[in-house]
UniProtKB/TrEMBL annotation:
TM region positions: none
Domain 2Fe-2S ferredoxin-type: 1-90
FAD-binding PCMH-type domain location: 192-365
Organism: Pseudomonas fluorescens
GO terms, molecular function: 2 iron, 2 sulfur cluster binding; FAD binding; iron ion binding; xanthine dehydrogenase activity
Full protein name: Xanthine dehydrogenase small subunit
UniProt keyword terms in alphabetical order: FAD, Flavoprotein, Iron, Metal-binding, Oxidoreductase
Length: 484
């Protein structure tokens, strides 16, 4: 059985199809049809809901963290021990919520289909910021598409509803909601079981290892932003899933003198602070990683584990010399991330083995790390090419080079010939041109609807040239966010 709060209503579910998304649960099982399906792939934001989780801050104070999610990519099993809020829950005692009023007063809605999703993104923004600036409002709404209003009135609604905000019914009930969430906090393995399909929800790494050993055919579910597409887009059935999002040990971020250890089930939005502090270009790339809804849900381990050749984080992690800790039963092994990827969607992971955490070396003054993403639009888009460069230069000579690319091969991959052309050579234009030519030996990219093979190779070469120019003239540095 799993338990969660539907606003303030306790829901206990057991015999549900584990392939059921929160979107379809709301619409078909509880009659809340305000949440819309626009794309069923997490691209449009019409299905946005907000999930509340009990959190404890550094001072030991308990509070509820509200986050926007795409309900079309969220399986019901991930709600275990949490609070689900949909657009119907915002109106209180006959009065619209302040974010709804702002959308009305600023003329932020026309046809209205996308409006519930925008309202829920604004609600989450209001809960998480006292006075958001334009950048925060843009980030909060970048995962919501509107084909009518042109966004200006919606941004005006964001400013009106978040600046000088007033307490609402969720603030008034916070103590009560905290108590109710504590009362339903999971204490044992949860399960949804429809007879022929099941999803298990462990609480510890040990339980996860035991379950995965017992069900090696199971699909591991973390954020589900990739896995759920098999259900929503390809109409496949997932007979057995194991949801890892309630394993607290795999959601930790621990900082040591020489490294950062990030639990594989840590949401990308939670990774931001630690990675941005060490590597600002990593932080900038995370701002361009899909939408806020996806970053609130998708995990760093999932972005690695799905072995996509166009995943944004692996090239950066490989260039930084990151490692993964793989767990199977009581056995653990540490593997360089570059050795994890073997071929298209093929990894070094053994049966019943899972990624427990990612180890990222801390930055040093000698490193010259930059990352770049080429995509058709700035926000919420997949890379055509993603490049990460990490050089060490001493007395004008390159002593170490790690260059990694996504979108250039069947796997995220280092550019060995390019690196060899650089190591031991002076860091000058002639050497960089030689290294650019060597990229043609490292990669024979494919052509697809995102980019041709010629475009990809030329882009990769130009990104290396860009990297060199920025390091020579840092005052013109544009970094990852300005490159499209």
């Amino acid at each position: 059985m799993i338990q969660f709060l539907l606003n303030q209503e306790l829901r206990s579910e057991h015999a549900l199809d584990p392939n059921l998304t929160v979107l379809n649960y709301l619409r078909d099982h509880v009659g809340k049809s305000g949440t819309k399906e626009g794309c069923a792939s997490g691209d449009c934001g019409a299905c946005t809901v907000v999930v509340g989780e009990l959190q404890t801050d550094d001072a030991g104070r308990e509070h509820i963290r509200y986050r926007s999610l795409n309900s079309c990519l969220t399986f019901v099993s991930s709600l275990h021990g949490k609070q689900l809020i949909s657009v119907e829950d915002l109106k209180h005692q006959g009065e619209l919520h302040s974010v709804q009023k702002a959308m009305v007063e600023c003329h932020g809605s026309q046809c209205g289909f996308c409006t519930p999703g925008f309202v829920m993104s604004l609600f989450a923004l209001q809960k998480n910021s006292d006075a958001p600036d334009h950048a925060k409002a843009h980030e909060a709404l970048a995962g919501n598409l509107c084909r009518c209003t042109g966004y200006r009135p919606i941004l005006a609604a964001a400013e009106q509803s978040c600046c000088g905000k007033q307490a609402d019914q969720f603030d008034a009930r916070e103590a009560e909601t905290i108590a109710r969430l504590k009362a339903i906090a999971p204490t044992d393995i949860g399960e949804l079981n429809s007879g022929d399909k099941r999803c298990l929800v462990p609480l510890t790494v040990a339980d996860l290892a035991d379950l995965y050993d017992a069900y090696p055919q199971a699909r591991l579910l973390a954020g589900g932003t990739d896995l759920a597409l098999e259900v929503t887009q390809f109409h496949r059935t997932l007979p057995v899933m194991i949801y890892v999002g309630n394993v607290a040990e795999m959601k930790r971020i621990d900082t040591f003198e020489d490294r950062i250890e990030i639990g594989a089930a840590t949401a990308l939005s939670d990774c931001y602070e630690a990675l941005n502090a060490e590597y600002p270009d990593f932080g900038e790339l995370l701002h361009r990683f899909a939408s806020l809804q996806i970053r609130n849900q998708g995990t760093l381990g999932g972005n690695i584990g799905n072995a996509s050749p166009i995943g944004d984080s692996p090239p950066l992690l490989i260039a930084l010399g990151a490692q993964v800790v793989l767990c199977k039963g009581e056995t653990r092994r540490t593997l360089n991330l570059e050795d994890y990827f073997i071929d298209y969607k093929v990894t070094a992971r053994q049966e019943s083995e899972f990624i427990e955490k990612i180890i990222v070396p801390r930055a040093s003054a000698e490193q010259l790390f930059r990352a770049y993403k080429v995509s058709k639009r700035l926000d919420d888009d997949i890379s055509a090419v993603c490049a990460a460069f990490n050089l060490r230069v001493e007395n004008g000579v390159i002593t170490d080079a790690r260059m990694a690319f996504g979108g250039m091969a069947a796997i995220p991959k280092r550019a060995a010939h390019c690196e060899a052309a650089l190591i031991g050579a002076p860091f000058n234009n002639a050497v960089v041109e030689r290294a650019c030519a060597a990229l043609a030996e490292d990669f024979t990219p494919l052509s697809d609807f995102r980019a041709s093979k010629e475009y990809r190779l030329l882009s990769a070469q130009n990104l290396l040239r860009k990297y060199f120019i920025e390091l020579q003239t840092p005052h013109i540095e544009t970094r990852v966010t300005a490159y499209v």
